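Handout, section 3.2

Students often ask what a structure token actually looks like in practice. Rather than define it abstractly, here is a full record for Dephospho-CoA kinase. The first block is the sequence as you would receive it.
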Amino acid sequence: MAKFIVGLTGGIGSGKTTVANLFAELGITLVDADIVAREVVAKGSEGLTRIIEHFGADVCQNDGSLNRIALREIIFNQPHQRDWLNNLLHPMIRNTMLKQVQQADSAYVIMVVPLLFENGLDKLVNTTLVVDVDPKLQISRTSERDKVASTQVEQIILSQMPREQRLSKADDIIDNQGQLNALRSKVASLHHKYLELAKTPN
């Protein structure tokens, strides 16, 4: 039977992980694009083998794992190389995520994807949930968490889909500017909604 999939997204520092973990506490399986993206280039993986064949041994650490910094430097100034990498990895990430969705045994599945709309992965889900916060809070939370300058966070925000556009595409929105208890009750309410939707044939 096809799984009911909720696509969870939001800008950097919006609290996607916190929201996802609250769903996990309710027994819902999470399929996280960031984790899968690391898995497909793990040591000994087909993804890493192809990357080394293409870019050479410089993108490999001494222990055989991916040298992310070296790879980032190569693709940063060479859009055609970045396209090659995306064309290799995006299908791998998508296929692995769909496989994990089918293996899940919860009533529905939360697919956590930072660039859900940007990468067109919203086509794979039944409904979308956006975690939203005020941009000022996004900047302060992220610079504190990642120990980076606020100007760097602003650049990342500018590279992502504009807030208004993301909100206009959302089926559900969680405002994550309050306390954890308020967030927990919003998640519980959506959880009941998704349980009902998952029972209804698509």
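Discussion prompt for tutorial groups: The chain has two domains: 1-28+106-202, 43-105. How would you have guessed this from the sequence alone?
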